[in-house]
Amino acid sequence: MTSRFALAALLMGLGACGETGMASADSIDPAAVERFIGEPLPRGATAIRSDGESGVDTRTLLRFDAPLVDATGFAARLLGRDPKPGEDPVLGHFGTGIDWWSPAAGPGSAGGRADDRARNRSYRVLVVPKQGGMATVWLVAFSS
Q: 20: left (phi > 0), else alpha (psi -120 to 50), else beta?
């Protein structure tokens, strides 16, 4: 199962095993994203892209745009604290080979890392401000 289609089929099938997986970037199911990360996406989220893989561990990559205040609130709920200005959780290497995955901290960026031991999840999140009061959220969530 090396093709993206086979990977997407495998990940979508995880729901029947009690663990929710992620679809490929070409077949997004926002409800599956929310179940896996344990947090709803902001209402105004747009340009949503996701990818993931599952084996012994499950890893999810997520990118979306939202109003800056909503993006920051989303990150804070996952981190259990406000994202720290200037903190770069180093996300780039997680999405090697994925054409839309290019997280880069810039002026005004904030981020962090957190573990949710009760849900067996780890999060790395980066909020990058854009023009017009918007931001791009980059998230890696994984279980082990």
A: beta
Give residues with Cβ within 8 angstroms of 135, minimum separation 6: 65, 66, 67, 68, 71, 72, 127, 128, 129
CA distances from 77 to 11, 59, 80, 97, 106 (A): 25, 19, 5, 29, 22
Contact 69, 140 (CB under 8 A): no
pLDDT digits (tens, 9 = 90+) for 21-75: 444 444 557 788 788 888 999 998 999 999 887 777 778 899 999 999 999 999 9
pTM, to two decimals: 0.78
Q: For residue 60, give Cα distances in angstroms to 41, 51, 102, 130.
A: 14, 6, 15, 23
